[in-house]
Amino acid sequence: MDNPAYQEEFRDEMLNGKITLMFPRPAVNHSRVIGNIFYAFMKYLSGKTCEPFADGTDVYLTEKDRVIPDVMIICKREIIKRNGVHGVPDLIVEVLSHGTEKKDRGYKKDLYERCGVQEYWIVDTVNQSVEVYLLKDKKFVLDEIYQVFPDYVELSEKEREEYKSEVPVSLYEDFSIPLEDIFRNLF
User: How confident is the prediction for the chain on average, in pLDDT?
Assistant: First the structure.
């Protein structure tokens, strides 16, 4: 039965002038990780100048590029308008899915670099990892890959000492998010 009151809302992005449909329903783990990261950002940034946004906000980066990042932090409030963000976010998080991985690691990463995003996270829910890229001399440099290791993986004493269990947010010296909080409640 066709119900005209219910319509699937398709979202789209514009990449290099081409409209690209986004998948309307992300997987549960994808949604949980977005929520977990947004919650951590929201909790820390409460009362501060910078503001987090979760999936659903259009970002107008160039005349040919409009994206909808999974999570982002905006510190320049003047770029926030009623219909979206018109300018460059300070930090962008993309959570990988089967349909987006190539774009997130390819065109979008290059676009974010060209536009001057200061920090870019690529989050993989399957491998429970976070790749953090920082902008240095107008180029993204892989700062670190943070990963949850399954209980059955035995780490040497040296590996345990070097293991980084929290992802720092470079915008603030005292802000980091435990990996266990990012990947909490996944299937």
Answer: 91
pLDDT band at 1 (very low <50, low <70, confident <90, very high): very low
In whole angstroms, give the CA distance from residue 62 to residue 86. Answer: 9
Looking up tokens 């977005």, which residue turns up? Answer: 34
Q: How far is CA 101 from the centre of its chain?
A: 12
63 bridge partner residues: none
DSSP letters spanning the chain:
---TT------EEEETTEEEEPPSS--HHHHHHHHHHHHHHHHHHTTSS-EEEETT--EEEETTEEE--SEEEE--GGGEETTEEES--SEEEEE--TTTHHHHHTHHHHHHHHHT-SEEEEEETTTTEEEEEEEETTEEEEEEEEEPPPTTPPPPHHHHHH---EEE-TTSTT-EEEHHHHTTT--
Write the burial class of residue 74 (CB in 10 Å: 0-12 exposed, 13-18 middle, 19+ buried). Answer: buried
The model's pTM: 0.91
In this structure, the strands spanning 51-54 and 71-74 are antiparallel
In this predicted structure, the answer to whether residue 5 has a pLDDT above a threshold of 70 is: no
